[in-house]
């Protein structure tokens, strides 16, 4: 099946700093999503981005499908950005909306 | 509130017991899922239903049986619980359009602890 790798596994930032999270995947995809799991465990859908670039406030994401990677940018980080960021993909041969999740990037934003 | 709601939020039970987790969505979605998140936070799909029909059934022990009475509900029944079943179970839903999921939304999770 498709493999999804995320980097870095852990990241500590000072409030106000910017960061880039990376997601590499092993095969062509027709679906890529970024999720944030907050410290209370809630999973929030950030972006649906199988290709191209999207922005939502301080967050933006870019997926280069031909090179099989996606980037999540966090600007002017805040303590509420802390949590785990997951990339999830569905391969072209996948069916039934089967998302394969990466192992996540654990982000901690400190004052 | 429009949401995916799961009950119970916490479940502590002894080995060998049978338990159920319920999930309901009022988003008008037609596809529902069960995911398992282990202690290392790894998320893996278990089942997926589209309009009450099972479309994904990953390699999950037969002790796990999903049931979808209608497209707004997807319940998970677990028989003969084992220590290794301890995890957080997430329900999710989406709208299946043109072969792709839209509006992927997760419930708040059920933390199952088997003692």
Order of helices and strands of chain B: EEEEEEEEEEE
Q: What separation lies between the terminal Cα atoms of chain B?
A: 34 Å
Q: Please state the average pLDDT score of chain B.
A: 92
Oligomer class: heterodimer
Can you identify the CATH superfamily of chain B?
Answer: Immunoglobulins
Structure classification of chain B:
mainly beta
What structural class do the secondary elements of chain A suggest?
mainly beta
Largest sheet of chain B: 7 strands, mixed
Q: Enumerate how many helices of chain B there are, as a single number.
A: 0
Largest sheet of chain A: 6 strands, mixed
Per CATH, the superfamily of chain A is Immunoglobulins
Overall mean pLDDT of chain A? 93
What does this entry look like structurally?
The complex is a heterodimer of chains A (111) and B (115). With 111 residues, chain A is mainly β. Chain A has one domain (4-110): Immunoglobulin-like, CATH 2.60.40. Helices cover 0% and strands 59% of the residues of chain A. In chain A, the strands form 2 sheets. In chain A, strands 2, 4, 5, 9, 10 and 11 form a 6-stranded mixed β-sheet that branches. In chain A, strands 1-3-8-7-6 form a 5-stranded antiparallel β-sheet, with no helix packed on it. By secondary structure, chain B is mainly beta. Chain B has one domain (4-114): Sandwich (Immunoglobulin-like), CATH 2.60.40.10. Chain B contains no helices and 11 strands. Chain B has strands at 4-7, 10-13, 19-25, 31-37, 43-50, 53-57, 64-70, 73-78, 87-97, 100-106, 110-114. In chain B, the strands form 2 sheets. In chain B, strands 2, 4, 5, 6, 9, 10 and 11 form a 7-stranded mixed β-sheet that branches. In chain B, strands 1-3-8-7 form a 4-stranded antiparallel β-sheet, with no helix packed on it. The model of chain B has no long low-confidence stretch (mean pLDDT 92). Classes of the chains: A mainly beta (111), B mainly beta (115). The A-B interface holds A 30-31, 33, 35, 37, 41-45, 48, 84, 86, 88, 90, 95-101, 103-104, 106 and B 31, 33, 40-45, 48, 50, 55-56, 88, 90, 92, 94, 96, 99-106, 108-109, 111.
């Amino acid at each position: 099946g498709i493999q999804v790798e995320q980097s870095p596994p852990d990241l500590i930032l000072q409030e106000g700093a910017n960061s880039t999270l990376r997601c590499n995947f092993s095969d062509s995809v027709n679906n890529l999503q970024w999720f944030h799991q907050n410290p209370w465990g809630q999973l929030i859908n950030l972006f649906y981005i199988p290709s191209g670039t999207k922005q939502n406030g301080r967050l933006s994401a870019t997926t280069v499908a031909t090179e099989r990677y996606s980037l999540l940018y966090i600007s002017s980080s805040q303590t509420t950005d802390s949590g785990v960021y997951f990339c999830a993909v569905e391969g072209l041969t996948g069916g039934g909306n089967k998302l394969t999740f990466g192992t996540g990037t654990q982000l901690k934003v400190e004052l | 509130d429009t949401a995916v709601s799961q009950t119970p939020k916490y479940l502590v039970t002894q080995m060998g017991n049978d338990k159920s987790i319920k999930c309901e969505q009022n988003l008008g979605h037609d596809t529902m899922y069960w995911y398992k998140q282990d202690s290392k936070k790894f998320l893996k799909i278990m089942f997926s239903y589209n309009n009450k029909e099972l479309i994904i059934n990953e390699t999950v022990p037969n002790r796990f049986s999903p049931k979808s009475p209608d497209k707004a509900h997807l319940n998970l029944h677990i028989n003969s619980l084992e220590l290794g079943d301890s995890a957080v179970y997430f329900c999710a839903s989406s709208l299946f359009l043109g072969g792709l999921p839209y509006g992927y939304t997760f419930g708040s999770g059920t933390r199952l602890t088997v003692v």
